[in-house]
């Protein structure tokens, strides 16, 4: 989880101007997200092994289909982000930016409005994909992560 958080922070800081943009760094961070989401994320929390000392709540086991669907959704977004990062130019371009006209469609898989249509991740700008990944991470943490003392 710490690798995922560091990778997401790296990309976010590049888009926010808090870190110098580096196409190779963007690609490496996106590849980390891709490698740690989807099936790899599901494997981190096998059935019957949840609870202390993990920060995972027991609700993962009780809502397994929901957790796995969210992990797969984050994986599809991370896959699309990695493709975009693999083609990243030497500088951030306008078509990589989220833009004012792109709707966030009501939230992540857990918080989306009923009937909301989700755009094809491959057609979304890299920055928008990152924001959707972060939304899904927040949704997953709020439902399935236990606060550490």
Question: Topology of this protein?
Answer:
Blueprint: H1 2-16, H2 23-36, H3 39-44, H4 59-62, H5 64-86, H6 126-144
Organism: Mesorhizobium tamadayense
GO biological process, one term: electron transport chain
InterPro entries: Cyt_c/b562 (IPR010980), Cyt_c_II (IPR002321)
Superfamily at the CATH H level? Cytochrome c/b562
Q: Give the overall silhouette.
A: elongated
The number of E-state strands comes to 0
Please tally the helical runs, counting DSSP H or I stretches of 4 or more residues. Answer: 6
Radius of gyration: 16 Å
**Uncertain spans, ≥5 residues at pLDDT below 50?**
104-110, 112-116
Mean pLDDT: 85
What is the domain tally? Answer: 1
Q: Write the H/E string, N to C.
A: HHHHHH
For the sheet with most strands, the description reads: none
Distance between the termini: 18 Å
Helicity, as a percent range: 40-55%
Q: Class by helix and strand content?
A: mainly alpha
Share of residues in strands? under 5%
CATH class value: Mainly Alpha
What is the CATH topology?
Answer: Four Helix Bundle (Hemerythrin (Met), subunit A)
Second-tier CATH architecture: Up-down Bundle
Pfam families: Cytochrom_C_2
GO molecular function, one term: iron ion binding
InterPro entries: Cyt_c/b562 (IPR010980), Cyt_c_II (IPR002321)
Protein name: Cytochrome c
């Amino acid at each position: 989880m710490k690798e995922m958080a560091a990778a997401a922070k790296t990309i976010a800081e590049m888009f926010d101007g808090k870190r110098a943009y580096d196409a190779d760094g963007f690609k490496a961070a996106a590849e980390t997200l891709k490698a740690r989401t989807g099936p790899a994320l599901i494997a981190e929390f096998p059935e019957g092994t949840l609870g202390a000392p993990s920060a995972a709540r027991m609700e993962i086991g009780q809502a397994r289909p929901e957790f796995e669907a969210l992990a797969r959704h984050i994986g599809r977004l991370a896959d699309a982000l990695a493709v975009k990062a693999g083609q990243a130019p030497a500088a951030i371009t306008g078509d990589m930016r989220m833009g004012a006209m792109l709707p966030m469609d009501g939230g992540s898989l857990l918080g989306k409005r009923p009937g909301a249509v989700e755009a094809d991740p491959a057609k979304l700008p890299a920055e928008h994909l990152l924001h959707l990944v972060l939304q899904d991470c927040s949704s997953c943490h709020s439902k399935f992560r236990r606060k550490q003392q």
